[in-house]
């Protein structure tokens, strides 16, 4: 089953393994998620499950969504996400059911999707990693510029040229992160490494599509 969870980034920390090595981790509040809708191939032409996360006040939800949650026999949720599943797995899911963090185990690999931190309008050095100009040898008021943006031929600025502009606040996925610990009582996932977004940002956690090769697998084998 490719079903995942919706979560919220709580922050970063570090833990120690039995060998005394430091492991940087991110703590995620994952679920419980409410099954708000089940779609099958007969009615909707594809199989999917819609999950809701983070309870919301009724006054902050539209009348249409209030009716949608009423059909699922649940309270309104702030975030709704859809997960594609196999048609065989739909039989075990129904509206109103709760999906919890118990679906994951320590050692599992997951892909985490979220929105990166917004950096606003940024220059080419911060946005694209340009080196900038020398700090001496005649450089004057041109230290952090991007250089030439055009030429005599072809005339004008070429499409896709890297320049200053909006940076960050983009949908980003970090693949193949390892789950270090699962705390079912607190609905927490402890994931090795960093995940996209700022604190309290919403995330989507799915089973990893591709397993890593090399050192990480050789240690666990």
TrEMBL record:
One of its GO terms (molecular function) is rRNA binding. It comes from Tectimicrobiota bacterium. It comes from the Bacteria. The keyword Ribonucleoprotein applies. The lineage of its organism: Bacteria, Pseudomonadati, Nitrospinota/Tectimicrobiota group, Candidatus Tectimicrobiota. The gene is rplC. This is Large ribosomal subunit protein uL3. HAMAP family: Ribosomal_uL3_B. Keywords: Ribonucleoprotein, Ribosomal protein, RNA-binding, rRNA-binding. Pfam families: Ribosomal_L3 (PF00297). SUPFAM superfamilies: Translation proteins (SSF50447).
């Amino acid at each position: 089953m490719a079903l995942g969870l919706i979560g919220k980034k709580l922050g970063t920390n570090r833990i120690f393994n039995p060998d005394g090595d430091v492991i940087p981790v991110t703590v995620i509040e994952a679920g419980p998620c409410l099954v708000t809708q089940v779609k099958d191939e007969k009615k909707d032409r594809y199989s999917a499950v819609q999950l809701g996360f983070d309870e919301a006040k009724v006054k902050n939800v539209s009348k249409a969504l209030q009716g949608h949650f009423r059909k699922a026999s649940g309270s309104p949720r702030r975030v709704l996400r859809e997960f594609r599943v196999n048609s065989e797995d739909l039989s075990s899911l129904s509206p109103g059911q709760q999906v919890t963090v118990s679906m994951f185990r320590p050692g599992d690999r997951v892909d985490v999707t979220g929105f990166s931190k917004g950096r606003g309008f940024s220059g080419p050095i911060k946005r694209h990693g340009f080196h900038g100009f020398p700090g001496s040898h005649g450089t004057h008021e041109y230290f952090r510029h991007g250089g030439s943006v055009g030429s005599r031929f072809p005339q004008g600025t070429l499409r896709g040229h890297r320049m200053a502009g909006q940076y960050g606040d983009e949908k980003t996925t970090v693949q193949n992160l390892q789950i270090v610990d699962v705390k079912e009582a607190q609905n927490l996932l402890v994931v090795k490494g960093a995940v996209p977004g700022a604190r309290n940002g919403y995330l989507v956690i799915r089973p990893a599509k591709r397993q890593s090769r090399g050192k990480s697998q050789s240690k666990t084998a």
